[in-house]
Amino acid sequence: MTAVPTVRTHRLTKQFDNHIAVNHINLQIDRGEVYGLIGPNGAGKTTLIRMLAAAEEPTAGEIYINGARFLRGHNNPELKRQLGYLPDDFPLYDDLTVWDYLDYFARLYFLRDPQRSQRLHEVIELVELQQKRNEVIATLSRGMKQRLSLARSIIHNPTLLLLDEPVSGLDPLARVQVRNIIKSLQQQGMTILISSHILSDLAEICTSIGIMELGRLVESSRLQELYDRSNQDQQQLLISTLGSLEDLQAFLKRSQLVQEVELIAGVPSVRVQFVGSIEECAALLKSLIDAGIPISNFHRTQETLENIFLKLGYKQTS
Ligand SMILES: Nc1ncnc2c1ncn2[C@@H]1O[C@H](COP(=O)(O)OP(=O)(O)OP(=O)(O)O)[C@@H](O)[C@H]1O
């Protein structure tokens, strides 16, 4: 029996006046995935996330969370209990302490003591705000505030966490901290949907990627599949030798699968554009060794998610 996906949508659509912001989207996110949603400004990511979070009513289509359907015009309390949502502009209450703020939200979810206090300790530890527990929110840095918002969105231990641009405006260290929290939540079994324009961050944490363009989901794949597909067309190899660079270059140029060989300044290495499969790549390495060329490094580089996105040719909205 196949497992029920955590999120499934069927022809999900949102129209604002004459503008279709989300257009017949069939999305599936399996349990335990970290699903990265990317796409240019105005592609419809926020609108899609808001519909999944029950913050926006769809114009048409269906949403299923863990197999149960969101009912139109119904409060869906059981389903909402399974959702955590961090919008990109959620207000914090500056005068409250970290503890009181989280306690307030825990009460909204009817968590009772001693479980409520225990859960507060857990999430405060997870987002590393133990030292700031009794500080008022106004005194926190931007990164700390974002970690606190993340703690608020998971206080009720949801199965699905929806994060809309959670790292925008954060410095590199603060982004690492948020990434680490997301990794911990995934290890605890949470399914996470995250939108971001910082593709290098998504590449670090995501298991799958969806690309939106003009309201449509134009790509939805496992991250590894995207990498494999992009590597099928062309790969870059970095090869170093202890011997003569000229011999190495001449040998490589005889291979029909090598399109270009470029010397790298200052080091005994070449950069090679290679158009073969991974097996042919292994065969190239073997042939170099068989030919007696002393190879000291042979590295097949991974295309970045950013390059894959650009190579796929997705365009900006107007
Ligand atoms: N409440 C609304 N009323 C009218 N149009 C809206 C509304 N919300 C969003 N839109 C429009 O729907 C389209 C999709 O917007 P959305 O915010 O979902 O895109 P996005 O991919 O999240 O963009 P960004 O990356 O800039 O956050 C845009 O053209 C936007 O102007």
UniProtKB/TrEMBL annotation:
CDD domains documented for this protein: ABC_DR_subfamily_A (cd03230)
Protein keywords: ATP-binding, Nucleotide-binding, Transport
Molecular function per GO: ATP binding
Chain ranges of the ABC transporter domain: 7-239
InterPro entries: AAA+_ATPase, ABC_transporter-like_ATP-bd, P-loop_NTPase
The organism's place on the tree of life at top rank: Bacteria
Family: Belongs to the ABC transporter superfamily.
Name assigned to this protein: ABC transporter ATP-binding protein
